[in-house]
Amino acid sequence: MDDVPENIIIKASKGDIDAFEFIYKAYSQLVLNVAFRILDNMGDAEEVTQQVFLAVYQKLNKFQFQSSMKTWIYRIAINCAINYSRRTSRERDRMVEYNEVFHSQNSAGEIEKHMNKEDQEEIVHSFLKVLTPDQRACIVLRNIEGLSYQEIAETLKININTVRSRLKRAREQLLAVRKKVVNNEL
Amino acid sequence: MNCEKIQDLILTDYLDGEMDEKQKRVILQHLANCVDCQDFALTVQKTVIELFNNVEKVNPSESLWYKIKWLIEAEKQRQNKPSRGIVTRIRDMGRKDMGRILIPAFVMTVVVIVVIWMDIVNIKQFSFYKTQTTSLPQEVYVGFSYYREDESVEYALMKNVNFQTAIEEYFL
């Protein structure tokens, strides 16, 4: 994982706002994207991004350089987004949402065709909504952010086998939903 | 390895590239001879792996950094200012303005307590007096003076005056 230079982190931890801006520029897109995929709402994602960087600024002097800054920020972002998701009651009935998206889909072929079109984005959102926040975090870190199992385990502070089992369950769930769509059960 | 075990590995380590070469060879050998597992691998690849490939990355708005920066500055200012909480203010007073504020406040408190105490004592004395007067014999004479029309003073003595109020009783 690429990281910002150590001297920048030290400067920022002493209150240097320009050094902190450097950290913000390095990781803000990453934080926003993780939050956006977990929360599925740009306004909420920006609010969480704001919370994350305020938390990072306040905790910078406690950063021990034992893990990479990126892993540390990922962890804060995931925790903030999951907590935010649990706090707000914006998670509507997931299956209903999924049904809305695939309302006009009749066959597997059409779904695949649909995936290649510009509203692939909408399908990604719908798929992620089927998952629990913990599963969603694993899928986002693995499939969208491209982190390895080890990196996910470090980020979420969980066992690597837990990462494996969360990914497995999440993907089984996605396959089950796909199967229902193909069989016109949704 | 049976199909179930192979499919579990396809779903995770195999498609995520988390396998070493030896494990990968075992999976590939199985796939070469198992149509079901081939179909499974293709479906997983298309449905849950490729779906997330090339998803559009979103960018933070221009204003987000300024908002965060403003909140940081506001927090810094808040930390530099003395806290306005009541408990903290009292604590700060204790530290900084002990002589200037707490001593006059203490003196004022003592004065107020003394005044209240004296008032209570007066009321008690008055109550005692009232008890005394109520125990007087039935015939009570009260002398009083009043101005006549020609401005001369007339003295009079009233018998069996019935005091209606405490104030009346006190003054007469």
Structural class of chain B: mainly alpha
Sheet with the most strands of chain A?
none
Distance between termini of chain A?
41 Å
Instruction: Give the largest interface.
Output: A-B, 40 and 33 residues
CATH topology of the largest domain in chain A: Arc Repressor Mutant, subunit A
Percentage of residues in strands of chain B = 5-15%
> Would you identify the regions of chain A where 5 or more consecutive residues have pLDDT less than 50?
92-99, 101-110
Kindly report how far apart the N and C termini of chain B lie. Answer: 117 Å
CATH class of the largest domain in chain A: Mainly Alpha
Total of DSSP H or I helical runs spanning 4+ residues of chain A: 10
* Uncertain regions spanning at least 5 consecutive residues of chain B: none
Commentary on this structure:
The complex is a heterodimer of chains A (186) and B (172). Chain A is mainly α and 186 residues long. The radius of gyration of chain A is 18 Å and the shape is elongated. Chain A folds into two domains: 6-87, RNA polymerase sigma factor, region 2, helix turn helix motif (Rna Polymerase Sigma Factor, Chain: A, Orthogonal Bundle); 94-182, Arc Repressor Mutant, subunit A (Orthogonal Bundle), CATH 1.10.10. The termini of chain A are far apart. Mean pLDDT of chain A is 82; it is low at 92-99 and 101-110. Helix content of chain A is 75%, strand content 0%. In chain A, helix 5 (94-101) packs antiparallel against helix 7 and helix 8 (133-144) crosses helix 10. The longest helix of chain A is centred in the N-terminal third of the chain and has 23 residues, at 17-39. Chain B has helices at residues 3-14, 21-33, 35-49, 62-80, 86-96, 98-134, 166-171; strands spanning 141-147, 153-159. Chain B has a two-stranded antiparallel sheet with strand order 1-2. Chain B folds into four domains: 3-52; 60-96; 100-135; 137-171, no CATH class. Chain B is rod-shaped. In chain B, helix 2 crosses helix 3. The model of chain B has no long low-confidence stretch (mean pLDDT 77). In chain B, strand 1 (141-147) and strand 2 (153-159) form a beta hairpin. The relative contact order of chain B is 0.04. The longest helix of chain B has 37 residues, at 98-134. Chain B is mainly alpha-helical. The interface between A and B is large, with 40 and 33 residues.
